[in-house]
Write a structure and sequence with these properties.
The protein is of the alpha+beta class. The protein has three domains: about 5-65, Uridine Diphospho-n-acetylenolpyruvylglucosamine Reductase, domain 2, CATH 3.30.43.10; about 70-220, 2-Layer Sandwich (Uridine Diphospho-n-acetylenolpyruvylglucosamine Reductase, domain 3); about 230-335, Alpha-Beta Complex (Uridine Diphospho-n-acetylenolpyruvylglucosamine Reductase, domain 1). The chain has nine helices and 20 strands. Strands 5, 6, 7, 10, 11 and 12 form a six-stranded antiparallel beta sheet that branches. Strands 1-4-2 form a three-stranded parallel beta sheet, covered by helices on one side. Helix 2 packs across helix 6. It starts with 16 loop residues before the first strand and ends in a 9-residue tail after the last strand. About 45% of the residues are buried. Bound molecules: flavin-adenine dinucleotide. Flavin-adenine dinucleotide binds near residues 49 and 171.
């Protein structure tokens, strides 16, 4: 039976794969990756498939699905150390820790995918990202064939980035260790989340309260997977918030939201898209089955049966419109497999 990437990705696009194997133990995963590398066979690691844009031609190699499970919790008076294997469901872990009253990842509720992918783009939302709590990542280094323990500093986390994202062919994340605070409340620094909780920015709430509020906000934006809601057939945000220099930031309208960032000024991609004339529900062509989500201008949704070409056509058109309107280059957030963004003719 032909296996198609469309059946293993949340955007539901992508053609056939050469072959598909499921690794259920760390030893199996390491062995499979090394064996494939030794014969030079192209390899695609896949977790929840929620950050992948795959081409219609598919992938002529082996897809290795990450089914390695395992969780340990070690408590001390002030914190709990959580060690999670790469194939654990991210949101199940967040639900468990939030219900246990352990603080640190509760604002990352409702994000699809598996634990092993979270360090790759330093998954983040609502004022938290995993770099705040990750203390160690255990990974296979495909260049040395060694399994190594990386500290948070070794991971070189940035906004939606890390050493793993920089060198996607080098690392296989096997296990991630998080340090969460016990029995406390978290500061809520994200204005929209504070408003949803009915508290001031900087006030505190319990991990469970934050999880519930985040899930409500995310559902309203189509940012929690729901098979009955085509807006959630996406990769979440298609573009990152661009980080621009002060000179470019000064040319943008004053009402464009902006935040200080280590290497410049981070500006809202959603604002740029909406003010470049791309409205929610917008399509590149009237008969396209890919559209901007009706709930969030940063998400591209497969309304049913869209091809990768339709998704890419829309993404390219959005990127082009923002470039023309504001001179800012949007960068896509997901990883592209056997496809790329072109330049829109419009
Ligand atoms: C509705 C929706 C909402 C989202 N919201 C957010 C959000 O708020 N914040 C956010 O940051 N992201 C968000 N995302 C993006 C996505 O869910 C995250 O990036 C998630 O961590 C991807 O996990 P995954 O297991 O699905 O990765 P996949 O899509 O399976 O893989 C992504 C990439 O990582 C590689 N990879 C996966 N696992 C490993 C591993 N163990 N070792 C090495 N490489 C690996 C893959 O080869 C691929 O290149 C959202 C996506 C959707 C669909």
């Amino acid at each position: 039976m032909t296996i198609r990437l469309a059946d293993h990705t949340t955007l539901r696009i992508g053609g056939p794969v050469g072959d598909y194997v499921l690794a259920t133990t760390e030893a199996q995963l390491v062995e499979q990756v090394i064996a494939l590398d030794q014969v030079g066979r192209p390899l695609l690691l896949i977790g929840g498939g929620s950050n992948l844009v795959c081409g219609d031609e598919g992938f002529d190699g082996t897809v290795v699905a990450l089914g390695v499970r395992g969780l340990t919790f070690t408590a001390s008076p002030d914190f709990v150390e959580v060690v999670a294997a790469c194939g654990e469901s991210w949101d199940n872990l967040v639900a468990h820790t939030a219900l246990s009253g352990w603080a640190g990842i509760e604002a990352l509720s409702g994000i699809p995918g598996l634990v092993g992918a979270t360090p790759i783009q330093n998954v983040g939302a609502y004022g938290q990202d995993v770099s705040h709590t990750i203390t160690q990542v255990r990974a296979l280094d495909r260049s040395s064939l060694l399994v190594v323990d990386l500290t948070a500093a070794d991971c070189a986390f940035t906004y939606r980035g890390s050493v793993f994202k920089e060198q996607p062919e080098r690392w296989v994340v096997l296990e991630v260790t998080f340090r969460l605070m016990v029995g406390g409340e978290s500061d809520v620094r994200y204005a929209q989340l504070a408003e949803e909780l009915g508290i001031e920015v900087g006030a505190t709430a319990t991990p469970s309260q934050i999880r519930e509020a985040v899930l409500r906000l995310r559902r309203a934006k189509g940012m929690v997977l729901d098979p009955d809601d085509p807006d959630t057939s996406s990769v979440g945000s298609f573009f990152t918030n661009p980080i621009v220099g002060d000179a470019v930031a000064a040319t943008l309208p004053t009402d464009c939201p902006r935040y200080p960032a280590p290497a410049g000024v981070k500006v809202s991609a959603a604002w740029l898209i909406e003010h470049a004339g791309v409205t929610r529900g917008w399509r590149a062509r009237a008969d396209s089955r890919a559209a901007i989500s009706s709930k969030h201008s940063l998400a591209i949704a497969n309304l049913g049966g869209a091809s990768a070409a339709e998704v890419l056509e829309l993404a390219s058109a959005v990127k082009h419109r923002v470039q023309v309107a504001f001179g800012v280059e949007l960068e896509p957030e997901p990883r592209f497999i056997n496809c790329e963004l072109g330049r829109s003719p419009d």
